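Batch manifest, entry 17 of 40.
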Amino acid sequence: MALPHLDRPICEPVELQPGSPVRVERIRQGREANASDPFVHFHDVHELVLFGRVGGHFDADGRRYALTPHAIVFVPSMHQHDFALDAGPRGWTLLQVEADVGEVLAHKPGMERLRHSFCARPDRALRQRLELLADWLLALEATDPLALPLAELLLCAIVRAPDIEGEKLAADVHGLQRLRPAIDQLRRHPAEAPGAEQAAALCALSPAYFSRRFKQQVGMSWSDYVRTHRLHLASRRLLETTQSIATIADALGFATPSHFGELFHRRFGITPGDYRQAGRARPTSRQQ
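Output type: structure tokens
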């Protein structure tokens, strides 16, 4: 069974396991995969995506990049980005690295490229080396002492890949910065997300202007964004923790477990319990 959240795994809120500065996952989807829905977002980790078969586009820092087979994407911590993937077979390896680790690496000589988002297409020789490193990393536990050096080596290697030229977007690249206080508050305390008026006050904007600007920049209302953020975070906790559904619902600010279940089913087309059961039946990312 294809889990619905795997249509958008590169857009979920990220919670690295304690003691694990690295998270890696390999995703393969078949002909049944739907085109992905937009959800503009950012993470507090550095993110690398090594695509195999893929089509669609990637938006970051005010530019749009066409995604073609074997493209690679890098996004620094806290940079706004989004993916729109075409329907049909596709696959990628996702690497997420703790923000502090990535920042240190990005300030080393020759690594300045890691301070900005980019899309690139490695030649065949470099692609084979990247795939070899990714395979090795996937075979390790996240807490293995070799995991972080291998992740850093991957990041060092991708800066050698030739750029894919991006198309400048009409939207204001700095527009999200005015909204960050509200988004940061949601990310820190998802169960206590501010309402639209409080969110506007955090951004020193009027409620009407905040709502209009948020919809323009993110593509959905503030309340829709809050709900989507919580549901994606819940989907990850269902798979990666043993917390009860009721505990997850309460911790993320849903009124009741039944209300959470209704919203989850509406978003993903499956109940939280069935979702967790299907996730446990899947092979792990290291076995895919």
